[in-house]
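User: What would this chain look like folded?
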Amino acid sequence: MWGIWARTMVKVGMVKPCCLVKPVSATRIAGRYLAHQRGLSCLPVPPLQQTCERYLAALEPIVEAEELTHTKELVAEFQKPGGVGERLQKGLERRAQKTENWLSDWWVQTAYLDYRMPVVVHSSPGLVLPRIEFNDRQGQMRYAAKLIAGVLDFKTMIDNETLPVEYLGGSPLCMNQFYELLSSCRIPGLKRDSVVNHAKSSRPPTHITVVHNFQFFVLDVYNSDRTPLTADQLYVQLEKIWNSSLQTNKEPIGILTTQHRNSWGKAYLNLIKDKTNKQSVQAIQRSIFTVCLDAPMPRTSQEMYRSRAAVQMLHGGGSRWNSGNRWFDKTLQFIIGEDGTWGLNYEHAPAEGPPIVALIDHVVEYTKMPELVRTPMVPLPMPKKLRFNITPEIKKDIEEAKQNMNIMVQDLDMRVMVFEHFGKNLPKAHKMSPDAFIQMALQLAYYRLHQRCGSTYESASLRMFRLGRTETIRSASIDSANFAKAFDDPSKQNSEKVALLEKAVKAHRSYTDRAIRGQAIDRHLLGLKMQAIEDLVSMPDVFMDTSYAVAMHYKLSTSQVPAKTDCVMCFGPVVPDGYATCYNPMSNHINFAVSAFNSCTETNAAHMAQALEDALLDMRMLLEQSPKAKL
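Assistant: Here's the prediction, encoded as structure tokens.
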């Protein structure tokens, strides 16, 4: 099921940046946090007829006319009074009355926990941050120590519930995802995974995991009086870890987490048969987060550095490099390379991109602050090294994971591009939504490369609603198609092209507004489908139709993840013949990460990145040549 539609969850990000307001403090159990959550609306169930009409409109630019005619007949049958659609709709409405969020449990299950492809590349995003200049290896340790202290500072806000409530367009947003980030981990299963959050246990963890040279260590980050260790203290502890993990001939046990989920589920059961192994794995799972101290990656040109940094965050570079220096099931893994490359990788089930970016923005600001207090150096206990007993069977699983990881690494084509010609200020000057403007450039770039429109996913946030996650903005519309087809047509006047661009941008903005208010089509269609499964009725024809398969086969999977920090998120395509594009629009430049698979002859990340740059420049030229645009 996932192969057609469900990989969409890896598309993170909100539609526009959140504004922060004054912090709201509360007590976790019965304070203002719960009052805030209860004050949020429940996710609505859109009207059936509305979704059906909008579904047909979304199909128009991406399916053939003959196929669309057939689908219209199926949709008409589906929504007949007293028919199967109406019965499923009533079931959904009953579910909505009984639950906090009728979608959230289904979404986590179908989009993540039932998904069996590796989380690496296929699900977990990476985040690339600006390179740090380290003078020496101690620089890596000092920065890692400061970063850990910054995350613990953010954790204090979570624990004390003094996190600023985020707002979108004046509406308060659900803050639940922030409480799922720390002390959580995905657990592999044979057919379905689970997520455990230890922050909610009676004895929350007080340690992080540090991994260096494929060796894992437990590092207690709190003193006996519950105060967090300072950056000075953390540096001393990291030095101890580094010095006791100089041997690189250890088995990279972490590479097991890169496997297909069913394979990892079997290997996991075999791994934890041994008591020592089980205790070590549980220590990783329970930890607040993981810090990966990476060896340097292969040198590359300055032009290709960001792309190489992106793959280091996304998959670690393969078994020869840092892919074994990870535990990819861990919700948060901060990665600091010896060469100044840094960022993070996160397992997607607990949260979307914006809470991650809020955390990173906080940490980056924290690392810039000078240390106000010099710490008296009280002797601290040696961090505990986690032991693993490697049987021949576990060794075989590790070798298999290495081979499969290296195939995945070879297949991923990643390009990070800094578009330096203009940023979000240009579309704003022309009274256009920057996000919609960039999405139209993506549509134009894709059309120029492939001479057709492709089903496009952009992530919108449903956090206006309690426990809200994401909805799909379908950027490929009849208006975007008209614009893309007309752009290079010499018979069209510039004024007509500008009018088509403006119409397409407005249509995208309108769809976005509907999506964040719970009135788009994709999550409703998923709900109807899940209701059919729950009611044990045969799957309605409308979901078995070719048009539905085309609609859910996202050739372009995109996400805007805005941040104050000059960073970019990256992820893999959601279909074998597609592209993934993530972007962070800054005032005067835009950071893009574009990926494709080398195994597909039709797609090429470098070509897509170039086509995107050309489209943005051509659109600017069009606006500058048009007198109307200057009014």
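The mean pLDDT is 89. If you want, I can go into more detail on any region.
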